């Protein structure tokens, strides 16, 4: 007979049990039931609590219909290789049972309470994802809306652990849509299915073995590098005032097979959804074409996309950020936020829009070289490091990834190594109209993205994860692997 806590006498009724409050004595170790323990109870619509030692299921009123039998088994099942178990695997049955209201599970454990996380198999899958977890005196508390298998543990190890695992990931794709980016957009789109599939399963290398907590909820929004040209009319800038303004795109690409005309600005994937279909939808938006302004303001586009209107940060013409407006819902409070920038040029986020004025007296000379020649007319890098880090209470939940004009042999290197390389020095080409490329692939050239690398350097020094990859790779397989490595580490609670 299962034990029902906080009651002198409890009867298991055919149509339910009386709910009770769990209280663990301060001076007692948690009671972990032996492997092989099996207990069952029948619940009614009023809910109740099934407890075995300090292992418990708390079912609220209205969560299940009358006559629902619940079984808890302390199993011998092993956890995935990438995880360290602090408790046995608990099997909750009937597996696949979905609740009308979230049910609380309580699992006693032995291990580090600061990183202890409840991992539950995703609905209809074998992969484990993290649940939001609270620990108290050797017991982990979490809520679920379905039954499967669960254990308490960690997905990191040793001194590389810095926090609990999480299963909520928000991704902002900043895609350069100037006229030289067609092949690169297509290369990114080709790798998106693998990226999403890996996140959905927790299997980075596709070998069928789970390596990190699978995401339970993934959101992706795509913005372009087009932020206008300060109000000055230029040939490649259709909207001189604001361009696409850092607003997540909703337009699908009609040139791609299977794409709809419009999509939600924030595209959402949750456990049980079709990963391939979701990746296709994201590709339809992210492959946005090459009609954007030739003066890319990548960093301002990123920052405006994730900055709330309540921030003191201001953008062109004293406008505010879109995080709680047009882009509402993209960046959640407790998620890991991954920013992925793909571009073949350096950032030209201007603090003085006169730099785009063809007739400017303050900034004379070749228009294509204005941003290089006048760094004082651009916003400082601190603006972007501070702004991105302000979106996360914990800087370790920020991942900043760049796919840019980094020489291929420096892909994945540190910012210091990249910035000190002679190929990353910005120099005027002998033609006097452009800069010397930093890498070339199949006739496509890319230029040193020094401001983006320096932004990565600053956020990294303050706790964020970074991935610096080359746009000049033959394909983006290695690029996506590098980004997945950093994202998966932060989902798992690893510091490095």
Model description:
By secondary structure, the chain is of the alpha+beta class. The protein has helices spanning 182-201, 275-286, 298-306, 370-373, 381-389, 415-420, 450-461, 477-492; strands at residues 38-43, 48-52, 55-59, 68-74, 84-85, 90-93, 98-108, 117-121, 128-131, 134-136, 139-146, 149-154, 168-175, 217-224, 267-270, 336-342, 398-404, 439-441, 444-446, 465-470. Strands 1, 4, 5, 6, 8, 9 and 12 form a seven-stranded antiparallel sheet that branches. A six-stranded mixed sheet has the order 15-14-13-16-17-20, with helices on both faces. Strand 2 and strand 3 form a beta hairpin. Helix 1 packs antiparallel against helix 2 (275-286), helix 1 packs parallel to helix 8 and helix 5 crosses helix 7 (450-461).
Question: What order do the helices and strands come in, and which of them pair?
Answer:
Elements: E1 38-43, E2 48-52, E3 55-59, E4 68-74, E5 84-85, E6 90-93, E7 98-108, E8 117-121, E9 128-131, E10 134-136, E11 139-146, E12 149-154, E13 168-175, H1 182-201, E14 217-224, E15 267-270, H2 275-286, H3 298-306, E16 336-342, H4 370-373, H5 381-389, E17 398-404, H6 415-420, E18 439-441, E19 444-446, H7 450-461, E20 465-470, H8 477-492
Parallel strand pairs: 13-14, 13-16, 16-17, 17-20
Antiparallel strand pairs: 1-4, 2-3, 3-7, 4-6, 5-12, 6-12, 7-11, 8-9, 8-12, 10-11, 14-15, 18-19
Helix pairs in contact: 1-2, 1-8, 5-7
